[in-house]
Amino acid sequence: MITLALSKGRIFEETMPLLAAAGIEVTEDPDKSRKLILPTTRPDVRVVLVRASDVPTYVQYGGADLGVTGLDVLLEHGNQGLYQPLDLKIAACRLSVAVRAEYDYANAVKQGARLKVATKYVNLAREFFARKGVHVDLIKLYGSMELAPLTGLADAIVDLVSTGNTLKANQLVEVERIMDISARLVVNQAALKLKREPIRRIVDAFASAVPQT
Ligand code: AMP
């Protein structure tokens, strides 16, 4: 049995065409079913639905053989024990710093001010500001990061930006782009040895179906 870990939403939807290229179709709609293990048209392949931030953990410890996860999640988790063969070029966005439109970020950085930064990505944010030589107090949040500068909880946020509409709707502006993000295929290293052939076939089919840029 090959187990693939996916999260619901964009990753699930954008992985379906790649699975189809490998001759695999998920036979139940995750939005209509309450099942967490979904069968596919291949009796030896199943999909498990997990929280996006749990995908690397499932694959690392062998709860799943393969998984699809954002580079943001992967880097924040640390990629120990995970083989990362492919950039799937799906769920593309960027990790950025944003502030209230009237906050003079460039000047605060120039003055060497200590910034309060709210984010879900404390490890990535810590590394980024350390590289820049900016002192920060990091505030860990689990969602609605955009609210932090609006309520005075933080001076800045580090969050994913795709269209920029969420920032705009909350009068926030993007002041630095930390890195481009897309979803990656990750494979459990032991599974890669023990189930080499079926995993290799899936990885190769995904590779040939990745959208070309
Ligand atoms: P947008 O308004 O299109 O810039 O999207 C920003 C919102 O969607 C933020 O709340 C982000 O955390 C979230 N977001 C954008 N792209 C992604 C992605 N690829 N994966 C997960 N969340 C995302």
Description:
The protein has 213 residues and is of the alpha/beta class. The chain is built from 9 helices and 11 strands. The protein has helices spanning 10-21, 55-60, 71-77, 105-110, 122-132, 147-151, 165-169, 189-194, 196-209; strands spanning 2-6, 37-39, 45-49, 66-70, 82-87, 93-100, 115-119, 136-140, 156-161, 172-181, 183-188. The strands form 2 sheets. Strands 2-3-1-4-11-5 form a 6-stranded mixed sheet. Strands 8-7-9-6-10 form a 5-stranded mixed sheet. Helix 1 packs across helix 9. The longest helix has 14 residues, at 196-209. The two termini are 33 Å apart. The model has no long low-confidence stretch (mean pLDDT 96). Adenosine monophosphate (AMP) binds next to strand 9 and helix 7.
Summarize the entry for a quick read.
The protein has 213 residues and is an alpha/beta fold. It is built from 9 helices and 11 strands. The chain has a 6-stranded mixed sheet.
Strand order of the largest sheet: 2-3-1-4-11-5
Number of strands: 11
| Mean of all residue-level pLDDT scores | 96
Based on CA inertia axes, which overall geometry fits?
A: elongated
Largest sheet: 6 strands, mixed
Which ligands does the model contain, each kind named once? adenosine monophosphate
